[in-house]
Amino acid sequence: MPDPPPDADATWLRLFLGMAADGVVAPRSLIASELGDLTLELSADRPAVALSKLRTLGRALGPTLYVQPDTQLRLVTGELSPAQAAREFCRAQVAGGNDGVRIGVVRGEGVLDRLEEFLAAGCDLDGERSLRDAGRQPAAAWAQAGAGVVDAAFGAGASVVVSRRPVRTSHEPGTTPVEVVFVTEHRVQAPWSAFEALWPRASTGQGEAVDAELAASIGLGVRVELIDTGGERQLCVAGVSEPGVRAAARRIELLATPGALSAPLESGVAPVIRRERLRTPTSLLEFFVDTRGAAEWAEA
């Protein structure tokens, strides 16, 4: 996941400190006055965490957006769909009685289904490599809208604009960066201490197969290893196939010491991501902002 801007932590801290005991930011307060030029980054968060923050933000900022409709707040959602983010944010707004605020969602960022078209136009990854040489099928591709797209939405009456990627502020003239996402494998880790009491014929070498017979029975393409992460030994189950890794996690969970796991092992399976940038002519891209009232987004 992309790193948030350097001042992101300070922004969230100011917002937290600006909330009253009931979790609401008072209109005309210091933090409310800063919303006219504020971007809140959720792009480093997993979707469930981002959704939880959006519910809190929707409640916290409801009075401010009602009293100060000229507020211009940008939300960057990363892995979370901007439309889903707008829906969650607006449900909190409507629940607080502010169903009139207008929210804009940037459309046109998702370009995975257009990569073949970009290839035909001669687009290359950074380093002059062809997309066909990347080694894996892309899982997603996101283009960055320019600042003019967002400014037009604010000019048309939106108080909040939601996008998946940060607004593009500088780039090579005539081109727009497209982030291409590759899933290299799926992986889950858990403390080895949860398994060592019951694990049969365990290997103790870092990075070696914990039990060759069990690993073979799980199926080709799934690795079962012991790894060292900062001095703590972890059991790692990994492979290209997500269903294969999930099936292995469900079986291996049976070997955990009773009471040692706080959640199902399968629930921790996550993709390992590699991101690369594709240089794309701006003329091939088309963005617009879907602007609706909070009540409409809440029902979308």
Question: In words, what does this structure look like?
Answer:
The chain is of the alpha/beta class. The chain has 2 domains: 8-182 and 278-298, no CATH class; 183-275. Helices cover 29% and strands 24% of the residues. The protein contains 9 helices and 10 strands. It has helices spanning 8-17, 30-34, 47-67, 82-95, 115-120, 147-155, 212-218, 242-252, 294-298; strands spanning 38-41, 73-76, 102-107, 140-143, 160-163, 175-191, 222-229, 232-239, 270-281, 288-293. It has a 5-stranded mixed beta sheet, with helices on both faces. Strands 4, 6, 7, 8 and 9 form a 5-stranded antiparallel beta sheet that branches. Strand 1, helix 3 (47-67) and strand 2 form a beta-alpha-beta unit. Helix 3 crosses helix 4 (82-95). The protein is flat and about 60 Å long. The two termini are 27 Å apart.
Enumerate the strands of the largest sheet in spatial order, edge to edge or round the barrel.
1-2-5-3-10
Order of helices and strands: HHEHEHEHEHEEHEEHEEH
Total number of strands: 10
Extract low-pLDDT stretches. 1-6
How would you briefly describe this protein structure?
This protein has 300 residues and is α/β, with parallel strands linked by helices.
